[in-house]
Write a structure and sequence with these properties.
CATH topology of the largest domain: Rossmann fold
CATH architecture of the largest domain: 3-Layer(aba) Sandwich
Mean pLDDT: 82
Number of domains: 3
Bound molecules: S-adenosyl-L-homocysteine
Helix content: 25-40%
Low-confidence stretches: 69-90, 257-277
Structural class: alpha/beta
CATH superfamily of the largest domain: Vaccinia Virus protein VP39
Length: about 500
């Protein structure tokens, strides 16, 4: 059973970094004993330009028989043995997925102490599985890998015997995937989808398989059009487990759903502008206002919290005064788009050293967000359910505590001026609330008071004499260091955050 993972590189970002990310040195061939046999990891090629890691699992039939005892389902012949006793012992089956999880454990989790930013960024990847048993054939392979961000998904049926094409195709395909993905995401997809395609899970499916599936599926499974088939096959059609997984995925999907619709009214062109020139979209005005406020604050190390598809990160990168830019978002899909927009992998080392994209939720405190000059929350708070807002408040103002915090949110009073917006509607399907100027002011002042900040308000976009501007911006500033903040900031909100 065999698969290869390749990447390309440059002298500054050598392809051999793959060795760090996989935690396996390119100069060595290594062998590991796994529950189904010996797994070998070696590098058929390892240069700065190209590096390929190969995983070969030598199945131990005796171990399989031993493990298989009493585990075959419904008196059927043991699936694992049937898999081994076939014409192609090198075919990648679910056993290979198990070996992968044992041998590339840290890489699957996305952890890499030596190169955290490389592990967090998409790489040009090529995965090849020369013989993959695929129940459902090439078509299903394309359906499964197609929506996952690969630019090339090739599944070519392998003939039963190349000398006798008239015999037709075998149940194997040759799989080639190419695209720019984070290594951990690629590995997690394979970990789930190899057994799904194989559709003959060799071991008894235990309840913790649901957790394994959800963990490996984080960021891609909930939104996958074939999630039902994937879940059901992965859990060997155990109905109660499948239902459990489906419910969990549904929750994730709702949480992720989706701030990425193109018909984001916020981005609509501001039609009230009475000039000959092209009117400036509101989103651009917002970025201009944010950049201005950051410069005024003298910030150089900036967090973009809820960075979405990375438009602000891109604008920040253009100004060298911003030396460190961290974009955080809960949506993997948004981050994938952001990293493509920024062309992170093709950036020179100087530029790429300035920027990090990271998946995370703002309703949890995160030590890594401490010590920055400024944090931006641009059109983010209205995406949280109101009861979750105190948790975000604590994570940002109580825990991360940058000197400056910029928060923008729609001014709901202005909605009557949007011609395309039916009365009483919010601007975007995922907005949980939209505030009047008075409501935003009341919230912001309370937050500022609780955490030792002062707050000032600025309009963004054309200000209407009656209903105000379309977007409201609050600029929070503190001079208090982390330890002399008001006691309330640490206690009361922490409790609220925990309760939420
Ligand atoms: N800041 C961007 C995107 C706004 S859309 C802009 O101004 O255009 C809101 C973003 O917040 C989405 O990308 C969404 O995924 C993210 N988001 C919502 N809830 C979040 C949470 N709890 N943690 C992190 N990001 C969150």
């Amino acid at each position: 059973m065999f698969l290869t993972i390749s990447t390309t590189g440059t002298p500054e970002r050598p392809a051999t970094d793959l060795g760090f990310l996989l935690h396996k040195h390119p100069d060595k061939a290594q062998s590991f004993s796994t529950s189904h046999g010996i797994a070998h990891v070696f590098y058929p090629e390892a240069s700065a330009e190209r590096c390929t890691a190969a995983l070969l699992l030598e199945v131990d039939p005796v171990a399989l028989v031993r493990r298989g005892k009493g585990k075959g389902r419904g008196g059927a012949p043991d699936a694992a043995l049937a898999q081994y006793v076939n014409d192609r012992p090198y075919a990648a089956s679910s056993l290979l997925a198990v070996a992968m999880s044992a041998v590339f454990k840290s890489a699957l989790s996305g952890a890499c102490r030596a190169m955290p930013e490389r592990a967090g960024a998409p790489l040009p990847l090529r995965v090849e599985v020369p013989a993959l048993p695929a129940r459902g054939g090439a078509e299903l392979v394309r359906k499964l890998f197609g929506p996952l961000g690969w630019t090339r998904v090739e599944a070519e049926a392998v003939p039963l015997d190349s000398e006798f094409p008239q015999w037709g195709d075998s149940r194997y395909v040759r799989l080639v995937l190419e695209g720019e993905l984070r290594l951990a995401d690629a590995l997690r997809q394979l970990y789930v989808l190899l057994p799904v395609l194989d559709d003959a899970k060799h071991y008894w499916v235990a309840p913790d398989e649901v957790d394994k599936l959800l963990r490996a599926g984080a960021g891609w499974l909930a939104g996958h059009p074939e999630r039902k088939l994937i879940t059901s096959r992965y859990l060997s059609r155990r109905w109660s487990l499948t239902r459990q997984a489906a419910q969990a995925l549904e929750l994730v999907r709702l949480a992720e759903s989706d701030d990425l619709d193109v018909d984001h009214v916020d981005n609509a062109v501001d039609e009230t502008e009475d000039t000959e020139e092209k009117p400036v979209p509101l989103a651009e005005r917002r970025r201009t206002a944010i950049l201005g406020a950051l410069r005024t604050a003298g910030a150089s190390r900036v967090l973009d919290l809820g960075c979405g598809q990375g438009q602000l990160v891109q604008a920040l990168l253009k100004d060298p005064r911003f030396t460190e830019i961290v974009g955080v978002d809960v949506s993997m899909r948004a981050l994938t788009i952001a990293s493509r927009r920024l062309k992170l992998d093709r950036m020179g080392e100087r530029q790429s050293g300035r920027v990090t994209l990271r998946q995370g939720s703002l309703t949890y405190t995160d030590k890594r967000l401490g010590g920055y000059d400024a944090a931006v929350l641009s059109e983010v708070i209205e995406h949280l359910d109101l009861p979750r807002l105190p948790a975000l408040e604590y994570a940002v103002f109580g825990s991360a505590r940058p000197r400056t915090v910029l928060v923008t949110t729609p001014n709901v009073e202005y909605n009557v001026r949007w011609e395309t917006l039916p009365a009483g509607h919010v601007r975007h399907g995922d907005h949980r609330f939209e505030w009047t100027r008075a409501e935003f002011r009341a919230w912001a002042e309370k937050v500022a008071g609780r955490h030792g900040y002062t707050v000032a308000f600025e309009p963004v976009g054309p200000e209407d004499p009656e209903v105000g501007p379309p977007t409201q911006l609050a600029v929070f500033t503190t001079t208090a260091a982390a330890d002399d903040r008001p006691a309330e900031s640490t206690d009361k909100n922490k409790k609220e955050a925990e309760a939420a």
